[in-house]
Please model this.
Amino acid sequence: MKKDFFGSYRSDASRLKGEVLDVVHPKNVGEVRNAVLGNNKVVIRGAGTGLAGGAVPQGEVVLDLSKMIGISNFNKERRVVEIEAGVVLDDLQDYLRPWGCEFPIKPSSHAVATIGGMIATDAVGNRGVKYGKTSNWVKWVEVMDASGHIERKGITEMSDYVGMEGITGVVVRACLKLNPVMERSASLVRLESLLEVVELVRRLKMRRDVSSLEFLDKMMSKGVGFGEDGYYLIVEYENDEGELKGDEYDKVMAMRDAAYPFVAGEGYTRIEDPKVMLDKFPKLMSWLEANGIPTFGHIGVGILHPCFSIDQERLIPEMMKLVKRLGGQVSGEHGIGLLKRGFVEVNDQKILRNVKKRTDPWGKFNMGKVI
Model:
């Protein structure tokens, strides 16, 4: 019975498997402190939606924060709200909507993703072209260190914790900045060539009313029902300029969210997240197409999601080398976790190790991840 209970905690959305010593479900800061002080090695987990193995335990205790769901101190005039780490993004949006506010970062896993997990990976999502990363919308975080002590970290100190994938401490609470709920519409644009894609994206990025630019290659477009023999771009506007409004808008956005489930069902289960400059996009896409790797992504910020079958996973190191030659990043939003440790540059490893040593000298949190 105990083995079956731990089963779901051995993995996250990356499908990597680990070993669980125990699982703790704290409901408040005091219970988090007890878990931190009572265990030598701790892996921090939210919804388990991570795609890089960041929440996969390596013979450790899993600290599941999903029961810490408090929302408080909402201020409509100042557009801020305080949340605990386990709050699910869509639940937060439901709380804010009657007041005409929203948190503008929207990853594809918005229905289940926790705010703590988004902070840990510095999630981007499909509106990154206008709103950037999660860190742009975090005013402060409260972090627990290995001794159980909590400190509030503001903008100048947050970089040691936001985007660090839980290796430096436990983010238990945060203050988020908010945006007014926007009227939105969308257009679905079919394009013949990668160069046409680049030219249109370059023009649309200059517009302040465009909040999302999502790309789907030919296989993805056909699979989700957009059409055959063409690339498709979903353009989201923060006004009524798009042709798709209301239910039609909701439908096309749901089709976009179905991109990864579609290819995963076809056997392309390994999803990556390289990031390249727009002018390098055709070179990377040409390589992906030549190798039969279906791809979609947030082209407005240069993040692509190539999806590999088990047989194609041997090509990932080659793709990472190409991304680096193009001046890109091996991870745009999923994080490094376990899967991409081998692709982190030596100088970056040194910086990360120094931060880890300074913030977690006992080596308690998420060991073996990132570095």
Residues 168 and 370 are 11 Å apart (CA to CA). Residues 346-359 form the longest helix (14 residues). The radius of gyration is 20 Å.
